[in-house]
């Protein structure tokens, strides 16, 4: 029971480094921190693990570690791990922490380590401990789990050994600004459910220029001379450039972006063996899609073949199976689209990295809290005390998305149900 409860705990780790923006007042002297960066290979068995993705390798999966400590008091430190996995699973988090506590007693704990997945959809499966992904992957694969934990710990070991004085600066650019200087991230995502977005109140949508977040935010890690040792960027786009019929293991577009940025910085190093570390972390991913051309019907022989899918329901001739999102390289292949979306993010990061950045100053602190989401008690604005319900999954979840359509007669925007629909919901969505 304790274990079951544990699975429903929502784990929240927030890192606070005070970012003071003074550039219009006076230049701020950059503050010194101790910084460490490292890369570890986390690719598990690339064949014969899961049902969808198991015939070989397109690109290895890696963990990139970013370590920030106070120069005066290095025990005040935060460790951010960006994993080329679908999710920063709590079982993986526990495994990494257990190994780190053995190797570096008292240094790393759940309160100062964040484990984040890039949310690719083509990685080696079998490491997640929750029911739904275990059903789709047909169980737990210890070899995959061990590869992710061990490789992540290797990344931390390098970052830890690599700890050296340096400074951090931060930059943020929205797509439209970047496109002026030719470094656009504007074209790296779209909203895959624009009709759902339109259901927001007009007063809400009036706040935004786009129906999707186009911001990229980047932390630049400098050595004492100001040379970049690497960066950690945040941008929102699903790792679904490769379609759900892909059978090769890959880090998808964020894995590609990291590879391109690292190889550009150190062209003579082997991939994954660079000292320059490029982090492309996922942010508010929601309904973002890398399939930026839009969703079209692939219905050979039907009158609607090649036409845009129905706007509200993402269907073709009334069903959703034929409605597929297209990436910018769709005429060539989904691998071409993956390359383009990876390049677009890598160029966006490069643009921010080499642009005007604000020095980061302040102390290094982290906050961590477990929240039991199914019975979280809180107070409404009108003073009533209320509590959240057990988790539930809307059955239109089974419609999948235009990045990976579901099956049978589930469609997006549908809102009626039958008991067997409720059961089937578990089995019929790939995304
Ligand atoms: C998983 O693999 C590790 C390392 O080989 C081993 O120590 C552990 O006992 C295995 N766990 C299970 C459940 O098989
Ligand atoms: C994979 O799916 C895409 C999108 O539907 C399709 O264009 C492509 O032909 C499929 N590839 C294979 C190998 O079936
Ligand atoms: C989509 O649904 C909205 C709200 O029900 C409706 O106003 C609109 O006409 C629909 N659009 C299309 C293209 O069917
Ligand atoms: C406060 O708001 C909730 C939700 O609208 C409502 O159910 C509740 O009755 C309200 N409580 C009071 C004291 O008005
Ligand atoms: C379900 O959708 C129909 C058709 O769009 C709408 O008329 C109805 O109000 C919706 N029901 C609920 C419970 O949202």
Helical amount: 10-25%
Distance N to C terminus: 29 Å
Query: Major beta sheet, specifics?
Result: 9 strands, mixed
Instruction: Tell me the structural class.
Output: alpha+beta
Mean pLDDT: 87
Overall shape: it is globular
Structurally, the number of domains stands at 1
Number of strands: 21
Q: Using only CA atoms, what is the Rg?
A: 22 Å
Low-confidence stretches: 1-27
Q: How much of the residues is beta strand, in percent?
A: 25-35%
Bound molecules: 2-acetamido-2-deoxy-beta-D-glucopyranose
Question: Count of DSSP helices?
Answer: 10
Could you walk me through the main structural features you see in this protein, from its secondary elements to its overall organization?
There is one protein chain. The chain is an alpha+beta fold and 431 residues long. It has one domain (2-292, 328-370). Helices cover 24% and strands 25% of the residues. The protein contains ten helices and 21 strands. The strands form seven sheets. Strands 2, 4, 5, 6, 7, 9, 10, 12 and 16 form a nine-stranded mixed beta sheet that branches. It is globular. The site of one 2-acetamido-2-deoxy-beta-D-glucopyranose has 3 residues, from loops. Residues 33-422 form the Neutral/alkaline non-lysosomal ceramidase N-terminal domain. This is Neutral ceramidase.
Q: What is this structure's SSE topology?
A:
Blueprint: H1 2-8, E1 9-17, E2 33-41, E3 56-57, E4 62-70, E5 77-83, H2 90-103, E6 113-117, H3 131-137, H4 142-161, E7 164-173, H5 175-180, E8 190-191, H6 194-198, H7 202-205, E9 216-223, E10 228-235, E11 248-249, H8 252-265, E12 277-282, E13 288-289, E14 294-297, E15 323-326, H9 334-353, E16 358-359, E17 364-372, E18 377-379, E19 385-387, E20 400-401, E21 404-405, H10 419-424
Parallel strand pairs: 3-11, 5-6, 10-12
Antiparallel strand pairs: 1-17, 2-4, 2-7, 4-5, 7-9, 7-16, 8-13, 9-10, 14-15, 18-19, 20-21
This protein binds 2-acetamido-2-deoxy-beta-D-glucopyranose (5 copies).
